[in-house]
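Archive entry: two folds, one per protein. Generate the first.
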Amino acid sequence: MQVNLRSFKQKVRHNTKAFTKYLGSIAKNPPKGLDNMASKIDEQVWKEIDCLSCANCCKSMTPTFTKTDVKRISNHLEMSVKEFTEKWLVYEEEDKDWINKKQPCQFLSKETNMCSIYEVRPLDCAGFPHLKKRKMPEYMHWHQQNINYCPATYKMVEKMMEQGIKPEKKSK
C-alpha cells in the first residue's frame, strides 16, 4: 500500500505520546509470547506498507556504518576506505559511530526511492525497522524512536494495540 507521508506525520503528531508510553509499558512487563506475536504482526504490516513509496528512513535518519560495512561498501564502489569515509561519512566521537554526512542518504534515488547500494547496504539498513527481532523488549527503545519516522513501526504498534496486546500483569 502506498504511504502518504503527510498523513503519516499527522498521525505521528497525534499519537506519539500514547504509542511511546504503550511501548514503554510493554518493555517493562512483556507479555508471554511477545516475540511470536510480533512475528505475526510483522507479516500483517508488510501486506499494508510499501517501503518504496515512503523511504522516510533514508530521507530523515542515518544508519550507523560498522567497520565491516565501510569496507564492503567502499570495495563495492571501488574506493579506498579513506576515500569513502572522507566523501560520505562523519565520525561521531560521542557514540563512536560512522554516520552519513547529510540527509537524505546519498545512496537514495529521489526518483525511485531505491537504494543504489542495496545489495551491500549497511547492516543497520538491512535490519531496519527491526520489527521481529527476538527478545523484542530489548528493541522497544528503538521502536519508540522509529514510530516517528517509519510507517511500518507505527503500523506495528497500532496493530499491537488493536489486537489487545497488553503488558503482563505483575503477580503479587
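Generate the second and append.
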Amino acid sequence: MSKFSRKKIVAVLVGVGVVAVGGGLAFAYWTSSGTGTGTAGTGTGASTLVITQTSVISGMAPGVAAQTISGTVANNATNSAFVTSVTVSISGVTKAAGAPAGTCAAADYTLSGATMPVNVDVAAGTSTNFTGATIAFNNTGSNQDGCKGATVALAYTSN
C-alpha cells in the first residue's frame, strides 16, 4: 500500500482547490475599483425683495421741518434674505402742471440719514420695517416758486 491513500490525495486536492478559489476571490476583491461623480447647488439668493414707502410726505415748503421716511421690505422669495440697510435717494423731481416759471430740481431738497440700518434676516414670505431718513425742502433765500406742487420721486435700494 502506498504512503498516500486515495482519501489523503483527494483531501489535499480539495484543500488546494479551496485555497485557489479563496485566493481568487480575495484577489478580485482587492483589485476592484470604481469612479463616480456628483453635484451640489446653492440658491441664487432672494431676488424678490420689494421695498415700499409707508410714510406719507406732503406739504414740504421753505421753513417746514423735515419729514421722516419709513417703509417695509417684503421678501417674496422662497428663501430668507439678510437685509443690512435700505438707502433712499432722490431719483427725480417733476414740476406740477401750471407751476410758476422757474426751475425745480433734486438740489432743492435735502435727504438726511439716507442709509437706514435694518440688520434683519427676513424669512421667506415676511417683511420688516425701516425708518430714519428725512427729507426737507431747502430754503435757499431765492424765489423757489417753480417747486410749488412738485412731486419728488424717491428710489430705494437694499443690501
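Annotation attached to the second fold: Helices lie at 6-30. The chain has one helix and seven strands.
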